[in-house]
Amino acid sequence: LHQRDDGGGSSDGRGKAALCDDGAEPGAPAHAAGRVPPWTEQLTLRGLVVSVAVGTMYSVIVMKLNLTTGLNPTLNVSAALISFVMLRGWTQALARLGRVVRPLTRQENTVVQTCAVACYSIGAAGGFGSYLLGLNKKTYEMAGVDMEGNVGTKEPGVGWMMGFLFAVAFVGILALVPLRKILVIDYKLTYPSGTATAVLINGFHASKGDDVAKMQVNGFTKYFAISFFWSFFQWFYSGGDHCGFSQFPTLGLRAWKHSFFFDFNLTYVGAGMICPHLVNISLLLGSILSWGVMWPLIADLKGNWYPADLPESSMRSLQGYKAFICIALILGDGIYNFTKIILKTVMSMLDKSKQKSAKNGKQLNLSGLCLPDV
């Protein structure tokens, strides 16, 4: 993320290149960074506080999306924006109080954004939205106490969950760092979310980034206020699980009984705007095919395909068909893509190895031709 400004051949280029972060105006981004700050200046107390605040807020958002829709959108870019807004406000507030503060650098902004992303990623990677909270006794009873294989429970607890997360949450250190060397540096594969985040942070800290930053902050503030006050307005009409705007029968009561309604939740609107069209169209097609066709047809076979005296939430009833059909589709597509990636990676590595061997052999032959006759 460090970019050196060489002045582009102008008369003051040497002065720009020599400017370092310590000479920037307090409360403003360090525009022309003449040096990369040491790690002791990148890890700051204000950065720790801001990263915890942003990570906590995003953890709540990710948990809600995981438990309601199963989506896990990439929030790297927005985390970088919110981190910049909070750090900029922190430094400007202290500067107005007459305190001498270290200017905000792009490296510190990146560290805060990375810590915030690591915080909310535990919500998905740690299994909080899938299996971890499904080990309790209530889920055990819902699945059926006499169901084969359903033999144990594990109530959520801070102690064992922290140990479990320490065991599973270090995938970035143990696996992704070596893969980064191979896939990103050696093979120069694109990393869309990381590249977009780097471009955004560099834009904030560029010499002409103030206008862009102000425009993005103003847009963020405007839509944040719209979402907040709309959610607050809906709260006045929430009288239960099946009341208010969250259960508005947009397409009629018959469609509402099959879960076709609009809940006016701007969180899902934002998630749909982040996800590409391919994902949104696939989700829409899957919802129509399942809730509009498959589940009503299977429900009509109650008493034939499954016992009629069981509730629909039981895994031996309609819920079992929903769960295992969806799991089969996801697992089949996942295995296909995993196999495809492995084969392409192996073939690419073999091609690189052959090209390298051919190049070395050609150089060896050329060097042999240059040997003098003895």
What does this structure look like?
By secondary structure, the protein is an all-alpha fold. It has a domain at about 40-205. It has 14 helices and no strands. Helix 3 packs parallel to helix 5 and helix 4 packs across helix 5. The radius of gyration is 27 Å and the shape is globular. The model is unreliable at about 1-25 and about 30-35 (pLDDT under 50). It is found in: Membrane.
Task: Give the helix/strand layout.
Blueprint: H1 13-18, H2 39-42, H3 45-68, H4 76-96, H5 106-125, H6 137-143, H7 158-168, H8 171-186, H9 192-204, H10 209-235, H11 253-257, H12 266-274, H13 277-300, H14 318-369
Helix pairs in contact: 3-4, 3-5, 4-5, 4-9
Keywords: Membrane, Transmembrane, Transmembrane helix, Transport
Biased composition (Low complexity): 25-34
GO biological process, one term: seed development
Number of strands: 0
Summarize the amount of helix as a percent range.
Answer: 55-70%
* pLDDT < 50 runs, ≥5 residues: 1-27, 29-33
With helices defined by DSSP (H or I, 4 residues minimum), what is the helix count?
Answer: 14
Q: How many whole angstroms does the radius of gyration measure?
A: 27 Å
How is the biggest beta sheet arranged?
A: none
User: What shape does the CA trace take?
Assistant: globular
Summarize the entry for a quick read.
The chain is mainly alpha-helical and 374 residues long. The protein has 14 helices and no strands.
What keyword list fits this structure?
374 residues; mainly alpha; disordered N terminus
